[in-house]
Design a protein that fits this description.
The protein is about 60% helix and about 15% strand. It is α+β, with helices and mostly antiparallel strands. It folds into two domains: about 65-170, no CATH class; about 175-380, MetI-like (MetI-like fold), CATH 1.10.3720. Strands 1-2-3 form a three-stranded antiparallel β-sheet, with no helix packed on it. β4 (about 125-135) and β5 form a beta hairpin. α2 (about 30-40) packs across α13 (about 360-380).
């Protein structure tokens, strides 16, 4: 048999396999097809795992964090991250441990120096008793996922895996609580801006004419202002005497008011592409009212597209909140966020002497990249001509 005949046979087998796969997926629903394509998008799946891990950690921040949010250890101000070890001077330890902490004041630099006290060993345990906390106001507990337990006087032993800040507060615990605020602000801002943008985008694209011109010119006016100055101006209007929860909702409202324009234009473009299709025209001829056409035909057709653009919009709102908090116009204490934590590293002295204060920036990068990967995966999966 010649090589040309072998190639013809191989191509025929491949064509048969592809046709069988097409027949197998011909009865799948659109939702199942999108889900199937998404699971073949490696970056999207990896991003989903990271996002899910972040969400679980911030949801259980009180339980996972070894210390309370605002617990100050004045003896350990600007303490470097402790190292978890398995080997001590007396050999290998099956249970991980951290050494004690000793400090001295450097007369030449005027900086407090910390070092390990090898005479003290604190083993790490799971499910230990520590600082008391209230879990979303449902119940109070002092049980933590891991820690070094308590000493003979009932006080928590020091455990600072990511160091402490300028007030001696545990950075790991504050990162978990800060992530809760930053991620929640991003999700709520996307929900509000998506609601406003979807409503106005549908109206603009469906009716057109004067209504379309008014909405589009309003969006252009919003886009004509630089984003950071307008965010700062709107944030400065929030009364400084407001409590933390009102400031939180104010920041969400500010981000939503500034960010709905892009989402509205996305929805408008999709509406213009769908409103003259055959099934919409058939609904019009059949006597369907505008409300029924919008909610029974247009919105379901754009649902996957709305999910994709909302996912891709979340990182922008997280960065917006982080920027405002970094500039001192966002979340106020006693709450904290990644942007507010990052503001402690604004000067060169902090960057050179206390580099672990940059950890919130790394958290922002990881969260934003992961959500972008999820958005890219959903966008590729929702594409009608995707080959995945």
């Amino acid at each position: 048999m010649s090589k040309a005949e072998d190639k013809d046979i191989d191509s025929a087998i491949l064509d048969a396999d592809s046709s069988e796969k097409q027949l197998a997926t011909a009865t799948y629903s659109q939702r199942r097809l999108i889900w199937r394509r998404f699971w073949r998008h490696k970056a999207g799946v990896a991003g989903s795992v990271v996002v899910l891990f972040i969400c679980v950690c911030i949801f259980l921040a009180e339980f996972i964090g070894p210390h309370n949010l605002n617990h100050r250890y004045f003896r350990f101000v600007h303490l470097p991250p402790q190292q978890v070890r398995f080997f001590a001077d007396d050999g290998f330890h099956l249970r991980p441990f951290v050494y004690g902490i000793k400090s001295r004041f450097d007369l030449e630099t005027g900086i407090k120096q910390f070092s390990e006290d090898r005479s003290e060993i604190f083993p790490l345990f799971l499910l230990v008793r520590g600082d008391t906390y209230s879990f979303y106001g449902l119940f109070e507990s002092d049980l933590h996922l891991f820690g070094t337990g308590r000493d003979s006087e009932g006080k928590s032993n020091p455990l600072f895996l990511m160091g402490t800040d300028r007030f001696g507060r545990d950075m790991l615990s504050r990162l978990l609580f800060g992530g809760r605020i930053s991620m929640t602000v991003g999700l709520l801002a996307v929900f509000l801006s998506l609601t406003l943008g979807t409503t106005l985008g549908l109206i603009s694209g469906f009716y057109g004419g004067v209504v379309d011109n008014i909405i589009q010119r309003s969006i252009e006016i919003i886009f004509s202002f630089p984003s950071i100055p307008i965010l700062m101006a709107l944030s400065a209007l929030l009364p400084p005497q407001w409590p933390s929860y009102l400031t939180f909702m104010g920041i969400v409202s500010v981000l939503s008011l500034v960010g709905w324009g892009g989402l509205a234009r996305e929805i408008r473009g999709k509406t213009l592409a769908i409103r003259d299709t055959d099934f919409i025209l058939a609904a019009r001829v059949g006597g369907g009212r505008d409300r029924r056409i919008i909610f029974r035909h247009l919105l379901p057709s754009m649902f996957s597209h709305i999910i994709v653009i909302s996912t891709l919009a979340v990182p922008g709102f997280i960065l917006g909140e982080s920027t405002l908090s970094f500039l001192g116009l966002g979340i106020k204490p006693p709450l904290t966020s990644w942007g507010l934590l990052l503001s402690d590293a604004m000067n060169l002295q902090s960057l050179s002497l206390y580099p672990w204060l940059l950890a919130p920036g790394a958290c922002i990068i990881v969260a934003v990249l992961s959500i972008n990967f999820v958005g890219d995966g959903l966008r590729d999966a929702a594409a009608p001509f995707s080959t995945r």
